[in-house]
Design goal:
TRAP_DctP_sf (chains A, B); 360 residues; SBP_TakP-like (chains A, B); signal (chains A, B); DctP_fam (chains A, B); 14% strand; five-stranded mixed sheet; homodimer; six-stranded mixed sheet; 11 strands
């Protein structure tokens, strides 16, 4: 059986099964799943989410469900995770859905959309709205299940060496900003480039690029941009970057019901935990940046820039929806969900945060 | 053994254990835990959190860990949950920590504090700051473990029949607002009363009270306040109401490691899920209230009211910290955590929500 070859099975239970035809003993079969993650070894926060998930699954199953994590240095294919899990070379993956946009355009919608939902709103859409069903509609033809895999919170708009006061200031600006957000920025005059993370600091320092978008304080701090750029812009392009667990469908079908549920809950908890850990790590990092670099100014993009980006985003979404029924359905679902969720969040979270900021 | 009597044990595994001295088979022992919740049967959102937790635990353990939920109509002691779990009459409870303030004053700090942390910030304090350790320090002498049990999100400031324009307007105002928030309100002139939920609507309609604080749109909608009050005030007093799972320490010690971990993760996920479900249900309810009652105005308390409440809150906290080292330690930990977390949330979530509101 091809499917069986996906697993390493332990023989422990075999003698018992032979002795006693009890379903309790049958359930003791052991499974080791192999997971490929896009990140390098010991990548902070993102890589902790996979380890957290694996630890919970192993402990809850009393060792019956083990997950062996291969980082990018091992499998050498950070952006091959989709294909490897699809083909069954790996049972699971940990990555980001929008990386597969070139292969399957509608995977774009399950990470985070410019001007879109925040983490809480997006989890609500996934778990209590239509999000999970729509995501599964996109992944099913590729023999995979997809689950939320951890949230970074609102990504910052990036580090700029010069202040942005107008649309003109963006004209020809060289900026590291990949993906769909880069396309939006390109529409308003920016020259988006993609540069490997290890070269970003030097590129910004030497003026090869004028600005760089990375993640948020916790991960940005480690790359050192605060030492060479004075302007830190607030976020717009990825308000709730959700990572993703992929599970090969055959692997999933092979697991007994209790281990499926253990895996499902471990992934769900690890994802939520990462959202909360991101708040913690970002708070710590931002406190340290503020203290060591009091010169750094947090800025919002000027209104005209914001408006131009919103328009560019709408134009690109319309293009995506054209001739693709599923894309149109997903975009509509997200926009409708966001409308109601945000109306409530505005009278709850936003009002509270603003009132509190005023009395400080 | 007294401890053993807490459990109903299934005999299924006994023959196997006799046959084979295998730890795998030993682990098949079954446990049924009894949980008392403060809420009535089918209480929305709060009661769904316990059912969600029990379902996850049962499915992940393949039926080895069952949780039998007794609602308040059964055990007749909604505010006796602390004592019943402490004494081992129940293995678990689902309630809110601040209900035990009269018994153990420092339980106050683990639900939500006026002008305090939001749900994400508070989860970060619990899980990545000192929150869990401090909470355990409070509950350990009572032979219990305490875990986060689900968040309502920011509670609204309440329904008022008349607009509040000054501190004077609060003078002698009769309002349903219980607990510590009621004490804060009392300091600024309000006459706080506690009225059973079933009588609130009539009390507000007949003018027995002038205002009522309940939870947020989802739960408020069911009580119908939107039909008889025009002013809905934004929140300040419970920015992140966290419910609580209690577990009797002897019960916990009796569980094998894998079931402890299954229970821990099921509680953690159910708590997070409730935070997300609250966003969903509040968004739906607020959309419906807005549509059916377009006359309703969302208001912030005037600055002078806000400032007076902040001062009253600080005064009450100082009193709580006086002569109680643990209280002082908890208050300091929360204030310090909030400072850094909010500084980050202000450049991330608040900036984003404000920018988005401006372009609408």
């Amino acid at each position: 059986m091809k499917r069986r070859s996906l697993f390493k099975r332990a023989a422990t239970a075999v003698t018992l099964s032979a002795l006693l035809a009890s379903p309790l003993v049958y359930a003791q079969e052991k499974f080791t799943l192999r997971l490929a993650e896009t990140w390098g070894p010991n990548f902070p926060i993102f890589g902790e989410a996979t380890k957290n998930m694996a630890k919970m699954a192993e402990e809850m199953s009393d060792g019956r469900l083990r997950i062996r994590i291969d980082s990018a240095n091992k499998h050498k294919a950070p952006f091959g995770v989709f294909d490897m899990v699809k083909a069954g070379q790996y049972d699971m993956g940990h990555s980001a859905s929008y990386y597969w946009k070139g292969k399957v355009p509608n995977t774009l919608f399950f990470t985070s959309m410019p001007f879109g939902m925040t983490a809480q709103e997006q989890y609500a859409w996934f778990y209590y709205g239509d999000g999970m069903d729509l995501m599964q509609e996109v992944y099913e033809p590729h023999n995979m299940l997809s689950f939320p895999g951890g949230n970074t919170g609102i990504q910052m708009g990036g580090w700029f060496r010069d202040e942005i006061n107008s649309l003109e200031d963006l004209e020809g600006l060289k900026m590291r900003i990949p993906g769909f957000a880069g396309e939006v920025f390109a529409e308003v005059g920016v020259n988006p480039t993609n540069i490997p993370p290890g070269e970003l600091y030097t590129a910004l320092e030497r003026g090869t690029i004028d600005a760089v978008e990375w993640v948020g304080p916790a991960l940005d701090l480690r790359l050192g941009f605060q030492q060479i750029a004075d302007y830190y812009y607030t976020g717009w392009h990825e308000p709730a970057t959700e990572l993703q667990f992929l599970v090969n469908q055959d692997t999933w079908d092979e697991l007994p019901k209790d281990l499926q549920q253990i895996l499902r809950v471990a992934m769900r908890t690890a994802a939520y935990d990462m959202m909360i850990q991101s708040v913690h790590e970002n708070a710590k990092a931002w406190a340290s940046i503020k203290e060591e670099h009091p010169n750094i100014q947090v800025k919002n993009f000027p209104d005209e820039v914001f408006k131009a980006m919103v328009e560019a985003n709408e134009k690109l979404l319309e293009e995506a929806a054209e001739g693709d029924e599923l894309a149109a359905k997903i975009i509509e679902s997200q926009e409708k969900y966001l409308e109601d969720a945000r109306a409530y969040i505005n009278i709850a979270d936003r009002a509270y945060l603003n009132n509190m900021a005023e009395i400080e």
